[in-house]
Amino acid sequence: MSITIQPFSDWLKATAAHVENVLDEFLPEADIEPVRLHEAMRYSVLGGGKRVRAALVYAAGEASIGAGQSLSSAQAKALDHASAAVELIHAYSLVHDDLPCMDNDDLRRGRPTTHRQFDEATAMLAGDALQPLAFELLAQTPVAPALVIQAIELLARSAGSLGMAGGQAIDCLAVGQALSQAELQVMHSMKTGAMLQASVLLGGIVVGAGSATREGLERYASAVGLAFQVADDILDVTANTAVLGKTAGKDLQNNKPTYVSLLGVDPARELLESLRQEAHAALLPLGPAGHRLGDLADYIVGRDH
Ligand code: GRG
């Protein structure tokens, strides 16, 4: 009997549609008071985004149970909770990043940013409320309590002052400053990399991955986390606003240090290719079970938005 493997683009589309339904179910309905806040939360999360972080959670979960194995229904549900949690934290970070006190942006995911669609206070509160909802979902993950605690701790650390929020703080202070490549790497590994890494590791944790698998996932995640940011920096100068769904050329306009401003476009592309190869090398010990993670590394490196 031959097994047909779903093509990657179909898998990614199906995964994005699945997490959209999961998020829709987990978010408070828009007709529950306070209605405007719930509308803003749903607006910020639903109906857009590539869902790369959710896809990393599911792919890492599948890689951790081994090729040809099926997820139990509890494991599948656990991956739903973890993927929704990372997308909620990600959505909150975008809402706050777009506020006038930070990037002051009008466009996100091809639509007005949350503070433009609603107002600043509502946008701030929507972000504030999405964050604890993510932890509530993780706390309700139907797996062993020790794994739930590991998952909560990882997400808290990755989103906090030593992760995403700390990276954002460094970024805010770095405007107009010359950073070395090492300093830029620290900033990005915190600001963007930490949440991408958390997505991969959470997928492994909630399905009960062993330590050897977790090590492979960690190596893969650190290469992919950085690759995502290098690709983002290249897209900022090579793609247009319509395709990106957010304002192109913002980094340059804001005088922000990026891999492109530091290295130039072609060396940044070379760095991206070496990170792609590093990600694939890290997956070798996982065997065929890691193929979706390999596809995701290629997607992250080759994406056009
Ligand atoms: C405000 C605490 C706080 C943090 C903000 C992640 C972040 C930190 C800001 C986003 C700014 C930005 C554009 C960073 C570059 C990389 C990045 C995270 C892009 C957006 O992620 P995608 O491309 O977005 O996965 P979609 O819309 O597809 O979900």
Largest sheet composition: 2 strands, antiparallel
Domains, number: 1
> How much is the radius of gyration in Å?
19 Å
Mean pLDDT: 93
As residue ranges, the low-confidence spans are: none
What's the total helix number? 15
Total beta strands? 2
Shape: globular
The percent range for helix content is: over 70%
In CATH, the homologous superfamily goes by the name: Farnesyl Diphosphate Synthase
Order of helices and strands: HHHHEEHHHHHHHHHHH
CATH class: Mainly Alpha
Distinct small molecules: geranylgeranyl diphosphate
Task: Tell me which CATH architecture applies here.
Answer: Orthogonal Bundle
Terminus-to-terminus distance:
39 Å
Percent of sequence in beta strands? under 5%
Strand order, sheet with most strands:
1-2
Structural class: mainly alpha
Key features?
305 residues, mainly alpha, Farnesyl Diphosphate Synthase, two-stranded antiparallel sheet, 2 strands, binds geranylgeranyl diphosphate
Task: Characterise this structure.
The longest helix is centred in the C-terminal third of the chain and has 28 residues, at 211-238. The protein has helices at 8-26, 35-45, 52-65, 73-98, 114-117, 120-139, 145-159, 164-174, 181-206, 211-238, 241-244, 250-253, 259-263, 265-283, 291-302; strands at 107-108, 111-112. β1 and β2 (111-112) form a beta hairpin. With 305 residues, the protein is an all-alpha fold. The mean pLDDT is 93. The protein has a single domain, classed as Farnesyl Diphosphate Synthase, CATH 1.10.600. The site of geranylgeranyl diphosphate has 16 residues, from α4, α8, α9 and α10. Geranylgeranyl diphosphate (GRG) binds at residues 49-50, 52, 90, 93-94, 96-97, 109, 164-165, 168, 191-192, 229, 232.
